[in-house]
Amino acid sequence: MIHPLIDRFLAYISTEKGLAENTVSAYRQDLQKFSDDLQKRAISSLEQVDRKIVLDFLATLSSHSPASLLRIRSTLRTFFKFMTLEGLPHHDPMAHIQSSRRTSRLPRALPFGEVEALLNFSKGKTPIAMRDDAMIELLYATGLRVSELVGLPLNAVNLEAGYLVARGKGSKERMVPIGQIALRKLSSYRTSVRPLILHGQCSGDLFVTSRGRRMSRQTFWIKLKRYAAAAGILRSITPHMLRHSFATHLLANGADLRSVQMMLGHADLSTTQIYTHVSQEGLKKVHQKSHPRG
User: Fold this and answer.
1) Which of 9, 49, 187, 192 is at 20 to 30 A from 251, Cα to Cα?
2) How many CA atoms lie less than 13 Å away from 116 in the CB half-sphere?
3) Among 123, 131, 145, 185, which one carries the catalytic annotation?
4) What is the pLDDT of residues 79-108, one digit of tens each?
């Protein structure tokens, strides 16, 4: 049976490798697709899986985005590498399947004017609206990943010192400063608004729903898109675009790369360096638009 082997692999990357819950969940979904495909082919053992079977499976995913296909290939590569190290199967069907390279894409950041329109737009005066406003303001103020934002525990924020402690990929913690506007909204939310939403319920999470639970990433994404549309932003917006905007705007205003790396929680400086290219692209557009011979 293949399912117990998948569970063994997931337990390994979760407990021994310390991968984030979202990453483990992505591996699980990819391997479930692979397992379902093997079941349709009446394949019950990894020993039966060869290069052709893997390629046939990948061929069934032609409707997926290039990014999804790359991730699934990477999942299978990691899974079979672990299995061969464990002694099963005796061969690695991914060994002779060429790995595709992801085309380097610049992250999409919002122009500062659109960020201001989103932040200044009145979300309403209800406790829920004020919570949402504080979340969006904090997301741009700190550059958190949306999973980090919705997962913030109550004790992660030090309002007096003006910083929060985020738990990122691999459960690594980092300290991120909070701007004054975000601090004011967050302080008001935590002191006055959060108790109204909880209605006497107890929760260790900072941002809560009326059921006393943390908000899901999907729910926050939906809310953000609605607020952006109401604020007159025509493009499709994602929480990650605010993280990109945070980094891009900091660098455009003179922040050093190393500091931005630390605030974003990037393990490698080269990951942060892509935002310098975004800034350069912006300068080129300004030059082309404004220079007489641009």
Assistant:
1) 187
2) 4
3) 145
4) 998 888 888 767 888 887 876 555 456 678
